[in-house]
Design brief:
221 residues, alpha+beta, four-stranded antiparallel sheet, 7 helices, 38% helix, elongated
């Protein structure tokens, strides 16, 4: 784990090498490796640590009592997860954090991030809190977008809503999504077979082109 690499992560934005070192030491950092499909944090767990994805990716999932899975978000490399639960400290997780692929996770204990034995906070604490606020705001927007995608009545409408959003975000009609077909179905809360049929129809109609998780949208869509 190189400090120079961590400086590029949003959570450490604006920090010097020494500030990052102080943060890692004060927050009792721990690095762990996980295999694809492995659960990193289970629903019901009380955690004092947030996770930072050093490599690979993570999905945040909810599974109901019947075993139906919904994917709430995708956590890419350099992004963070479980920070809200870690900050609250005593709130059980309502979701699972699962390895979407082989990944390396850096854990930081942020339970006492606002506590300091000094009258003035160290500079790294202030910067970390500001960065956490910015990241949390961005996550709220992403969750709001998912609600918007899944509120549509038909599978086609949900798919168009999501693909249009990704296209707008990437500023390109051609892009890759972070989900395989099953994960996309879980994210949009639809049946996988029905989703695949709808994608095939849209391809025949010339609305989209796709290969696995690579999509290209027709300008008229």
């Amino acid at each position: 784990m190189k400090i120079s690499t961590l400086k590029n992560f949003v959570i450490f934005k604006g920090m010097s090498n020494e500030e990052i070192k102080s943060a890692l030491k004060s927050l009792s950092y721990e690095q762990k490796n996980y295999k694809k499909g492995e659960t990193i944090l289970h629903a019901g767990t009380i955690t004092k640590k947030m996770g930072i994805v050093l490599s690979g990716s993570v999905t945040i999932e909810s599974i109901d009592i019947l075993g139906n899975r919904s994917i709430l978000s995708h956590v890419a490399s350099s992004d963070i997860f479980a920070e809200t639960y870690a900050f609250l400290a005593n709130e059980p997780m309502a979701v699972n954090a699962c390895a979407n692929e082989d990944c390396k996770i850096l854990f930081l204990n942020i339970e006492n991030i606002t506590h300091s034995c000094n009258y003035d906070f160290e500079s790294w604490r202030i910067k970390l809190i500001i960065n956490l606020l910015a990241i949390s705001s961005q996550k709220n927007l992403l969750l709001s977008n998912r609600i918007f995608h899944t509120s549509a009545k038909t599978i086609r409408e949900r798919l168009i809503s999501y693909l249009s959003f990704v296209s707008l975000k990437e500023k390109n009609n051609e892009f890759k999504i972070p989900f395989d077909r099953q994960q996309l179905a879980d994210y949009l809360n639809v049946d996988r077979t029905a989703l695949s049929k709808e994608i095939s129809k849209m391809k025949k109609e010339g609305l989209i082109m796709c290969r696995k998780n690579h999509f290209s949208l027709n300008d008229s869509m």
